[in-house]
Design goal:
The chain is of the alpha+beta class. It is built from 9 helices and 12 strands. It has helices spanning about 5-10, 10-20, 25-35, 75-80, 95-100, 125-135, 160-170, 205-215, 230-235, and strands at about 40-50, 55-60, 60, 70, 90-95, 105-110, 120, 150, 175-185, 190-195, 220-225, 240-245.
């Protein structure tokens, strides 16, 4: 039987094999690209409840350290190695599976092709993939924090950009401070806004990206949370261009 999804997941399997045999940032980037742009999975599930209370329950496995993982398969053939009565399979994109996992704090990640490849995607890596996906959708430079990122002074004449960002941030109670730096990653240079925030990154980061792109004068623009370890180190000796005033 012709398995369309097995062919669609060919890039993913190539990246998985590259990660297992060689590793390194290049294969990691190919893995991210395959996941967010191409991958679709067979996900074992069963239906729980009755009537209006019926809902899907997806297969979960536990390792010796009591981490819990959703089980994903890249082909029908590999899915045959997971046989449980009363279970069927759902077809989920990586995005759908990721949001499902990130919505449940008990889930540590995915195990892809259990009983054959046994490739684990940990929760932090899944979060990084979603950030890259969101950045691409917003027209932002996809940034994944790592120690290879280089920081400089802001690129170009950044005064107007800082003023526009600060004007927006005065009305966004989620933003407590912001820094603007030049950055370089994987040979690409861009301006990076590192944002200290009290709640979720969205919708603040989406709005900051829109303002940044409007006033960047053609220089690529990206946003990073201050909560990333590398972000805190990058701004250690810098002054923010915006800080929320203290209210007594």
């Amino acid at each position: 039987m012709n398995d369309f999804r097995e062919k669609k997941n060919a890039r993913l399997m190539m990246a998985i094999n590259g990660m297992k045999n060689e590793g390194g940032r290049d294969w990691e980037d190919k893995l991210v690209d395959a996941l967010i742009h191409h991958a679709e999975f067979y996900v074992p599930m069963r239906t729980m409840g009755e009537g209006e209370d019926r809902k899907p329950a997806f297969a979960v496995v536990e390792d010796k350290d009591h981490n819990h993982f959703y089980v994903l398969f890249t082909s029908q053939e590999k899915a045959k190695q997971w046989k449980h009565e009363k279970e069927t399979t759902a077809i989920l994109s990586f995005h759908q599976a990721a949001l499902m996992a990130l919505g449940d704090p008990r889930i540590s990640g995915f195990v892809i092709n259990m009983n054959s490849d046994n490739f684990i995607l940990w929760r932090k890596f899944i979060v990084d993939c979603i950030h890259v996906e969101q950045a691409e959708l917003m027209g932002e430079v996809p940034v994944r924090p790592d120690e290879n990122m280089e920081f400089t002074e802001p690129l170009g004449d950044s005064k107007e950009l800082e003023e526009a960002l600060a004007e927006y941030m005065r009305d966004d109670r989620n933003v407590t401070a912001a820094y603007l730096l030049g950055a370089k990653q994987n040979g690409k240079s861009f301006n990076l806004c590192i944002v200290s925030h009290v709640g979720s990154i969205q919708p603040s980061f989406a709005n900051i990206t829109t303002v940044g792109n409007d006033f960047s004068e053609g220089i690529p623009f990206a946003v990073m949370s201050y909560r990333a370890d590398i972000a805190e180190k990058a701004v250690k000796d810098r002054m923010p261009f915006y800080r929320r005033p203290f209210v007594v």
